[in-house]
Specification:
about 350 residues; ABC transporter involved in vitamin B12 uptake, BtuC; 15 helices
């Protein structure tokens, strides 16, 4: 069993900006999400459905950030857990279990259990083989859902989903107000838990494993146990994001399990920057707004321009937009310090 103090020693003194997340920065992220969301509701009340989509994508990206950014497990099949959560929430609602909070919790639990099972397969290989396992898992579940049309609706998806009012008071409306505030509440709770996790001894141990797994093992950290737990938690969060999408849209299609969705959330992390939680949120906002803007200008070629933006970003800021912001802030501090230095 890992010594929590050992995990802290393993990363103390090492500068690893891709993984470190101080608690004040995490609290700042919570305030940024809350104020940004409330500002959107006040100034753009007709775009709450889009804002809810951004929050769900941010939650999905946060789940992958825990798996990739903190645990270092590269995945091309994270949509498997997102889609599992969506189908669980949708099937429960069709079966008569329409209470949203318990349905969302069930979606997270089932997806998390699937993530725990899958993690034992992932630990048997290295980066490339892990990548293939995650890709294969996503493809298997997508095809299984397609063939099991009697259960999933196949290509037609799950239709006729109805969700009860939240706490018996807030019914889902056509304007997306309830869906927006519901998504905001769930995302804020998830961010708060992730901030606490990232600054805990468990988070420090993950940081040590990601930096050097062999060194972490020699220092007494149970590498396999930490990776299994991290992957299970990430899968559970992805399931909650999928369940949230199913409940707010009241429809589930095969798209929730598609490879494109896995690639999309990976792209979100690359845009924002992995390993600091801020990147997942920033990347989700930029991706969705860029998608909407570019699609309104050129319907058929918006992916070309989004890809060009990603290439430019990777060339000049390999750590994503949050990494670029850190670099600029660091340069500004150095210049300010040089001006204040005597004889400058």
């Amino acid at each position: 069993m890992a010594d929590e103090r050992t995990a802290e020693i393993a990363v103390s003194g090492a500068e690893d900006r891709a993984f470190g997340l101080a608690e004040p920065a995490g609290i700042g992220l919570l305030w940024a999400i809350a104020l940004g969301a409330l500002g959107t509701a006040w100034f753009f009340p007709l775009h709450l459905a889009l804002a809810a989509d951004i929050l769900i994508l941010a939650l999905f990206a946060l789940s992958l950030d825990l798996v990739l950014g903190f645990a270092g497990i590269v995945s091309l099949g994270h949509a498997a857990f997102f889609g599992t959560g969506a189908y669980v929430a949708g099937l429960l609602a069709l079966a008569g279990w329409r209470e949203p909070l318990s349905g969302l919790l069930a979606a997270g639990v089932v997806a998390g259990l699937l993530g725990l099972v899958a993690s034992f397969l992932l630990l048997r290989g290295r980066d490339l083989s892990r990548l293939m396992v995650t890709l294969g898992l996503g493809m298997m579940l997508h095809e299984a859902a397609n063939k099991a049309a009697w259960l999933t609706g196949g290509a037609d998806g799950l239709q006729g989903i109805r969700i009860d009012p939240i706490a018996g008071l807030f019914a889902f409306d056509l304007f997306g107000r309830t869906a927006f505030f519901y998504s905001l509440s769930v995302t804020l709770l998830a961010v708060a838990l992730l901030v606490r996790l990232a600054t805990s001894p468990f988070g420090l141990a993950l940081r040590a494993i990601r930096a050097n797994a062999l060194r972490a093992r020699l220092l007494g950290i149970d590498v396999e146990r930490h990776l299994v737990i991290a992957h299970g938690l990430g899968a559970g969060l992805a399931g909650i994001a999928g369940g949230l999408l199913a409940q707010t849209t009241q429809f589930v299609s095969l798209d929730v399990l598609a490879f494109q969705r896995s690639a999309e959330v990976l792209l979100v992390l690359l845009l924002g920057g992995a390993g600091n939680l801020w990147g997942a949120v920033v990347g989700a906002v930029v991706f969705k707004l860029a998608h909407e803007t570019l699609a309104s200008i050129t319907v058929h070629y918006w992916t070309f321009w989004l890809g060009a933006m990603l290439v430019v970003l990777v060339l000049f800021a390999s750590d994503g937009m949050t990494g670029l912001a850190r670099q600029l802030a660091h340069r500004m501090r150095r210049r300010a310090g040089a001006r204040r230095a005597p004889g400058s």
